[in-house]
Here is the input.
Amino acid sequence: MTLTLRSALAGTAVAATLIAAAGSAYAQPKEVNVYSYREAKLIQPLFAAFTKETGIDVNVISASSGLEQRIKSEGENSPADILLTVDIGRLEDAVKAGITQPIQSATLDKLVPARARDPEGHWFGMSMRARVVYASNDRVKADAITYEELADPKWKGKICIRSGQHMYNNALFAAYLAHHGEAKTEEWLRGLKANLAQKPSGGDRETARDVAAGKCDLGIGNTYYWALMKTNEKQKAWADATRVILPTFKDGGTHVNVSGVVLTKYAPNKANAVKLIEWLMGEQAQHMYADMNFEYPLRDGIAVNPIVASYGKMKPDDVPLAKIGDNKKAASELVDKVGFDN
Ligand code: FE
Here is the structure.
């Protein structure tokens, strides 16, 4: 086990180590430094497998916020090589913060579908998650639904959802904007708000809990949470009371978001960083994404976990993620305008 968690260490200590190594006659140290928003539980086994295969140590700093700012303030001395995160919004924020550099890799260009990477190469998706409906088994008969229909008055008082400003909903609403434009999106958000059973609150698992408790008939949540509940003794009842319906846009597919990476502007271990990013698109890592966190592999030909497969065949919507990133601010403003969270 070569993974070290350094969240308690100051960045300067890490930087000092690297400067010392660079001053020696030896080649680049066999390590790579990752700043991560992803949970240690998921990434630790991934990085351990990478180290075992390549001999390259992975040093991780985990946090739930502020990593872009940290990399920015560390500037040229930042030890960070890679920022690992979820959500297209966060990936684009990192690029806008000026802390990234394009990744030149024929392997990645081949393995990561064009819609799930930055046209300029500044960010790459590694895995996908879909934003779907958790439907009450007792009270909902439908087995198909469109995102547009979520605003249909027939669902009045029947839908539960977390904050409209949360990044997962923000990306969904930004995708709606890409399909329908601003006026129609505003109208849809008003309709969806009118259908809510309660003020937006909690997280995706709580929406399933509330459907199970009879507070609402439909909850909006990400695909992996349902599988995580299904395999969690304490939350299994919430999954058992519901089923996943994969909604689609009327003229498209199911909205997906990504987990992904950026390479930092001053990455001190750039070659190792690119090697790690390419490794994350390898077959072993993609299987780990599929089976440990119930995500959809981005690489073609990797089977999804059987629980995820039970949702049915997922056809990702073809609006490019970069476009969703562009619409994210407008979507957030509409959420405020319609008082979605009030
Ligand atoms: Fe999540």
